[in-house]
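Quick check before the chapter quiz. The format below is the same one you will see on the exam, so make sure you can read both the input and the output lines.
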Amino acid sequence: MLELLQSHHRLGGAELARRLGVDERTVRRYATRLAELGIPVEAERGRYGGYRLMPGYKLPPLMLTGDEAVAVVLGLLAGRRLGLPGEAAESALAKVQRVLPAGLRDRVQALRETLEFTLEAREGTRPAADAVLTLAEATRERRRVRMRYRSWRGADSERELDPYGLVFHSGRWYVTGHDHRSGETRTFRVDRMLSVEPGTASFEPPADVDPVRHVLGSLASVPYAHEVEVVLEATLEDARDRVPPSIATLTATAGGVLLRTRAESLDGMARFLAGLDLPFTIRTPDELRGAVRDLAARLVARAGR
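Here is the expected output.
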């Protein structure tokens, strides 16, 4: 029962009884026994009541099985690889290892020293932990926040935001929500927030809100040198399988799927389109046609060698 309460914020009596294979009377007896051992288990009455450990209670020294220790270490190592703050992951790993039994600690250290990743390491940004936690709490409680934000141009602004969700992508933390300054759903980088404070106003998010899709769509629309529109001769489902949402937006249109994106290099866009292996028609820019012809000529020349 203690293990279940450690891993869940709150569990109802019936759910605890089901997981433990006992009746609810036995669950109540277990809760009393834990309290007698000095472990404060709170019993909450009512429809949404249940059992939970008292907030802030510090459990005895960490006890992990071999599988649990491997799961924690792999999670922290993979997190560092994905771009999560390295110092925090390193200190967490050190704390976990300090409380492991000697034999298991040595085996976990061997894993750290020998494990390799095929995934390329990313250099992550490090937002303030308080900002991440404040936004997470506000998202869960549907509470508006006030923030000071610095744009990529270096301009500071004060905003009120109804946060819909936090998203970690390519080494960076993002929050998406309704920005009351612009009146639109916007995406903000958390590491550019100079301060975040919870407000008092509440909100209801749209029924179809999808923070991940919105963040990826926002990244796909970041300003670049060229606006690109290409019609792919494919179904929308097939196009979505080949084109990540962070690269372009896709909409059904007459004759196929309209791909809209922005590109810094038309040569790179030509290679991307060729890699899709789909017939396509270029709408804009006209210069992309030349880049595609140049790519085709280079490939023909290499094929003849």
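If your answer matched, good. The CA atoms of residues 105 and 139 lie 37 Å apart.
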